[in-house]
Amino acid sequence: MSQDDKGLVTHRGGCHCGAVAFEVDAPADLVVQECNCSICSKTAYLHLVVPRSHFRLLHGEEKLATYTFNTGVAKHLFCTTCGIKSFYVPRSNPNGYSVNARCLDESTISSLTIEQFDGRNWEQNAHTLAHLTDE
Fold it and tell me: What is the chain's Cα-based Rg?
């Protein structure tokens, strides 16, 4: 596993059926957020939030469907074949992506630390995620 000058490695991931694939540059030692809001808890999503420049969709754009609710800022992207949401544009960081760490290939992950995020009280806590898309 090679790291760039910022200590980032390239992780590969995608949906269950393989129709959607992506790469994301992030540390080998991942710190992710587990949110307790209704959509995240129902899908067991583990958030790895990265700047837009650290994410590359390799294939499958035509297989993605978008779901929005509430303010419509978050763009929840699902594979139309298998239904998996492997990444999306989060409301907290619309200038980046939230990748589901559960959808990453394990071979490039050295460790995974899970932090709790109180998304049920999103308005009071969203500011704690703002730094995650700083370059």
Answer: 14
Domain boundaries in the chain? 15-121
Percent of the chain exceeding pLDDT 70 equals: 96
The token pair at 5 is 């000058």
Give CA separation, 54 vs 57, 69, 81, 99, 126, in Å.
Answer: 10, 26, 26, 11, 21
Q: How far, in Å, CA of 124 to CA of 104, rounded?
A: 30
Q: What is the predicted pLDDT for the residue at 72?
A: 84
Structure pTM? 0.90
Domain 15-121 has CATH 2.70.70.10: no
C-alpha distance across the termini of the chain, in Å: 22
